[in-house]
Design goal:
Layout: E1 2-7, E2 10-17, E3 22-29, E4 34-38, H1 44-50, E5 55-60, H2 72-78, E6 83-86, E7 100-101, E8 107-110, E9 113-119, E10 128-132, E11 135-139, E12 142-143, E13 146-147, H3 153-167, E14 175-178, E15 184-185, H4 186-197
Parallel strand pairs: 4-5, 5-6, 6-7, 11-14
Antiparallel strand pairs: 1-2, 2-3, 3-4, 8-9, 9-10, 10-11, 12-13, 14-15
Helix pairs in contact: 1-2
């Protein structure tokens, strides 16, 4: 398991699992030994090994695509005291019924660390991001280079609106932890988006859009 960040009152672990190269993350208050899992994507044994000995308060899912919850049923069964949570828009796609439905602006406490919900529909109707301090977990909403796959031009426009109005307002040094692949920063992503925004685009643009190539 990779320790991606550590300070006195916050640790973040991240690991790639499964056939689709998904990232799952664990946000930990090490002084109180409490944690939240973000996207129990696959390989339940590796997720459970990571949180062994921790008091897992929440198992959070960024959106309803199955590659982000493939291990959720097994992980939640092994951690029966953990609250399973996602947004109402994607709750019906999960293999277990969430015990908590999250709305934009909700805040979950991981010990002393507040983890806030940011609703970012577009990739799916219920896509959400989570932020604590300068650490932003974006699921498939935002990757280095562009947004996640969009199924229609309307979905792409919704994604871009949410990215620019809800994510790009964060400080440039905010670290982005995406659902697949390596991370980036808000500053780097904004610079890439500026190139995209300066060019004309067809009205029907959608799918796999890259800021620097579309």
């Amino acid at each position: 398991m990779t320790l991606t960040h550590s300070e006195m009152d916050l640790r973040i672990y991240g690991m790639e699992v499964g056939n689709w190269g998904n990232n799952f993350y664990v946000v930990v208050d090490p002084l109180r030994n409490v944690a939240a899992i973000i996207d129990a994507a696959a390989e339940a044994d590796r997720i459970l090994d990571t949180v062994e000995g921790m008091d897992v308060l929440y198992i959070l899912t960024t959106h309803g695509h199955s590659d982000h919850w493939g291990a959720l049923e097994e992980v939640s069964a092994a951690l029966p005291n953990a609250i399973v949570a996602t947004t109402p828009g994607d709750a019906g796609d999960l293999p277990v019924t969430p015990t908590l439905l999250l709305e934009d602006g909700d805040t979950l406490q991981i010990g002393t660390a507040p983890l806030r919900v940011i609703s970012t529909p577009g990739h799916t109707p219920g896509s959400a991001c989570f932020i604590t301090g300068q650490h932003l977990f974006t699921g498939d909403t935002l990757f280095p280079g562009g947004p996640g796959h969009s199924r229609s031009p309307e979905d792409l426009r919704e994604q871009i609106t949410n990215i620019t109005t809800k994510l790009y307002v964060r400080p440039d040094d905010t670290i982005v932890y995406p659902g697949h692949g390596p991370g980036t920063t808000i500053g780097a992503s904004k610079a890439e988006y500026a190139v995209y925004a300066a060019k004309p685009h067809p009205d029907d643009l959608h799918g796999d859009v890259l800021w620097l190539e579309s």
